[in-house]
């Protein structure tokens, strides 16, 4: 890994143990290094990262963008703070987030290039108890056709 002196990375803890699983489901690290508790994936600034943790049957998934400096949100296992775009705290919402990422990849939508507002809108839909596939499809269609999130 070639690194300039002023280049910073976001470190994401990876674990594969019975009591704690931490993995990246979206995003490509610049490199992976060995840490005290397992591998650590390093991401460059501005990278969109999907991160999942499973501990004591609690599954959580996060979609965040790494930053040049400290972001506004702390995510366990991630340093420094990042711009948190989506946080899924139930198995159902984790499934919906995975389904969205899978759908966008299958349709060849470059997730990295989507504006943060797209994910903020998706997170708002995720928070509603009755989020439908039609609402997700409408959001994706709106993004792909006009790219306008000003409403």
Strand proportion, as a percent range, falls in: 25-35%
Q: What form results from the Cα inertia axes?
A: globular
- Cα-based radius of gyration, to the nearest Å: 16 Å
Q: Report the total helices.
A: 3
User: Runs with pLDDT <50, length 5+?
Assistant: none
- Order of strands across the widest beta sheet? 2-3-6-7-9
How many DSSP E strands?
A: 9
The helical percent reads 25-40%
Please outline the major beta sheet: 5 strands, antiparallel
State the distance separating the first and last CA atoms.
42 Å
Number of domains: 1
Describe the structure.
The protein is an alpha+beta fold. It has helices at 91-106, 116-127, 133-145; strands at 9-13, 15-16, 20-26, 31-35, 38-44, 48-55, 58-65, 78-79, 83-88. It has a five-stranded antiparallel β-sheet with strand order 2-3-6-7-9. It has a four-stranded antiparallel β-sheet with strand order 4-5-1-8, with no helix packed on it. Helix 2 runs antiparallel to helix 3. The longest helix has 16 residues, at 91-106. The protein is globular, with a radius of gyration of 16 Å. The termini are far apart.
Observed structural traits:
4-stranded antiparallel beta sheet; 5-stranded antiparallel beta sheet; 151 residues; alpha+beta; globular
Would you summarize the structure shown here?
The protein has helices at 91-106, 116-127, 133-145; strands at 9-13, 15-16, 20-26, 31-35, 38-44, 48-55, 58-65, 78-79, 83-88. By secondary structure, it is of the alpha+beta class.
Task: Map the helices and strands.
Layout: E1 9-13, E2 15-16, E3 20-26, E4 31-35, E5 38-44, E6 48-55, E7 58-65, E8 78-79, E9 83-88, H1 91-106, H2 116-127, H3 133-145
Antiparallel strand pairs: 1-5, 1-8, 2-3, 3-6, 4-5, 6-7, 7-9
